[in-house]
């Protein structure tokens, strides 16, 4: 008899863990943007000589809460990998989840270095460590997304359409709060919102590429493989441009007007290619619906 409730499937657990990771990403950005990463007297794992700081909203608490969320999320990620092995999921799902766990210690180490200015590692709060922290986090997020997608079973034209829709909506949402488009002040809250929406768009693009690759390989009933191949190419291009904007969303370069223009171009490319992918998928659906006979005819 299984102790696991019937509603708790692998896809739901993995999706929740991916959501926790996305939230952790946004928390990390907010923590850095408010300067709270320099709190806790630059100590790790303690915070101002305490295991648990005063539970009031101040820089110490923000940094500590980020660490706690990261710890819980880390255990959930380990659980995803364990499920893929004990649950007998396919090889690619096990590989994605296991790689996420394998690079988790690197992320923890870089995170510790990032917040230990004058602490364990003098000079840890630098551009290079922030860049590494961001890139490794994005890699883990992508691997978890793939494990969720692959572990949930076979795709379909409907799922492909949903994925492109999520990608386009997420990218458009990121445009509103991007530092490249001055609709809103790029405050710590706006920065966190930019990464929530941008990562949602990235998630949609990852799913689009995964489902389109499946369709090209094994095919979906009534769907032209050349068309889904085009969708995959457009989504991959959009993803590359979006990643550039995610990197430029942090202070990894001296953000001059030239970099702002470059960022704006990258956003435009990401939106245009994602819109193109969504349009092709819409055309595929229309063709399929026309081609398939109505039941009873």
TrEMBL record:
The keyword Cytoplasm does not apply. Keywords: Cell membrane, Disulfide bond, Heme biosynthesis, Iron, Membrane, Metal-binding, Oxidoreductase, Transmembrane, Transmembrane helix. It is a multi-pass membrane protein. It is found in: Membrane. The keyword Metal-binding applies. GO terms for molecular function: metal ion binding; oxidoreductase activity. The chain crosses the membrane at residues 21-44, 64-86, 98-120, 132-152, 159-180, 192-212, 233-250, 262-281. Its main location: membrane. Pathway: Porphyrin-containing compound metabolism. GO terms for cellular component: membrane. It holds the Pfam family COX15-CtaA. PANTHER family: HEME A SYNTHASE. This is Cytochrome oxidase assembly. It comes from Halorubrum aidingense JCM 13560.
